[in-house]
Amino acid sequence: MDKFIYVCYIKTTAEKLWGALTNPEFTQQYWWGRRLVSDWKIGSEIRALYDGNKIDWQGKVLAFQPPSLLSYTFHLEERADLKNDKPSTVVFEIATAGKSVMKLTLTHKNLSAKALDDVSDGWPAILCAIKSLLESGKALEYE
Question: By the 8 A CB rule, do 16 and 25 touch?
């Protein structure tokens, strides 16, 4: 199993970045219409919903320590080529990197080779869209 790590620096506050990762209305703006829905309690379900209530992926909350650590399992439901993979693990770490800059580190681990290829394209696009949205008020438009 492989892992993917991506680090970006965003001009924002830890609280705003935390909200960007956990607020369904915010996630919908940068994650191709997906709303991340959870009560954010350890062990609770998390789902990425689109087109009403279709499930793109789902998992369980592993860590929830605002505004510095968020982790959950990740299992794709919509992709036939990845649906049989075991759930992987996503970890977001937020740290102060300067007066008004936050360092966001994403680690996605326990990935199959095919899933690693997939997230290597997806996560940079998602995290750059978060950065754009927080810094300019507009998410990147990929479609």
Answer: no
Q: What is the pLDDT of residues 63-90, one digit of tens each?
A: 999 999 999 999 987 777 888 889 999 9
Give the residue among 113, 128, 95, 130 at the shortest CA–CA distance from 4: 113
Domains of the chain (ranges, CATH numbers): 33-122 (3.30.530.20)
- Distance in angstroms (rounded) separating the CA atoms of residues 80 and 68: 34
C-alpha count within 13 angstroms, C-beta hemisphere, residue 7: 6
Rg for the chain (alpha carbons), in Å? 14
Starting at the edge strand that comes first in sequence, how are the strands of the sheet with 35-37 ordered? Answer: 2-11, 101-111, 88-98, 69-76, 54-65, 45-50, 35-37
Tokens 């607020």 locate to 23
| Secondary structure class of 86 (helix, strand, coil) | coil
Do 30 and 140 touch, CB atoms closer than 8 A?
A: yes
d(CA 72, CA 102): 21
Q: Give me 32's structure tokens.
A: 């191709």
Q: What is the pLDDT of residues 95-124, one digit of tens each?
A: 999 899 999 999 999 999 889 999 999 999
